[in-house]
Amino acid sequence: MIRPDHVRGAGFILVLLLLTGGVLAQSGQISRVTDTGVQKRMMAMNANNTALTVLSDMMGGRAVFDRARARDARRRLIYTTGRIPALFRKAHSDPLSNARPEIWSDWPGFRQQAKSARSAARKLDVSTLPRLRKTLPRVIHACLACHRAYRKDM
After folding, report:
1. What is the DSSP string of 17-78?
2. CA 25 to CA 125: how far, in whole Å?
3. Three-state secondary structure call for residue 81
4. Are 124 and 74 contacting, i.e. CB atoms less than 8 angstroms apart?
5. What is the pLDDT along the chain (154 residues), one digit of tens a residue?
6. Number of neighbours of residue 32 by Cβ within 10 angstroms
């Protein structure tokens, strides 16, 4: 019999794969990017992906919940999501960039999305596994909303 928590976990994994698929694809491209601004943005997104993977593995039971590792991942998410507006302020360009021009033509909307992601990261509760399971989806949804609007389809 399939338990409801396994179904939720499978759905969460699907959402995480949709979010990180592009990031994983770009991780091998960073060294080929010539614009340092684009490189910095890609490295920040990869850092977010790494932190989200640590947390989602704990949430999904693929890794043992470790409060110290979870706190570290949360700190990295807060730091990196806080840097997003500065990293995207200038419209750096590179053929391998996944940033849509709407970032700069809708700068207030983009900044709001980045602010939402940082807020969700700050509200992430990693004190216990049940609290992680309750609060991590908000972070994922904030990231997905921004990516849907401002990242090129991969």
Report:
1. HHHHHHHHHHHTTGGG---HHHHHHHHHHHHHHHHHHHHHHHHTTSS---HHHHHHHHHHHH
2. 29
3. helix
4. yes
5. 444 454 455 455 545 544 544 444 455 678 888 899 999 999 999 999 999 999 999 999 999 999 999 999 999 999 999 999 999 999 998 999 999 999 999 999 999 999 999 999 999 999 999 999 999 999 999 999 999 999 998 7
6. 10
Give 90's DSSP letter. S
Q: Which CB contacts under 8 angstroms, 24+ apart, belong to 19-24?
A: 19/49, 19/52, 19/140, 19/143, 19/144, 19/147, 20/49, 20/52, 20/53, 21/154, 22/98, 22/147, 22/151, 22/154, 23/48, 23/49, 24/49
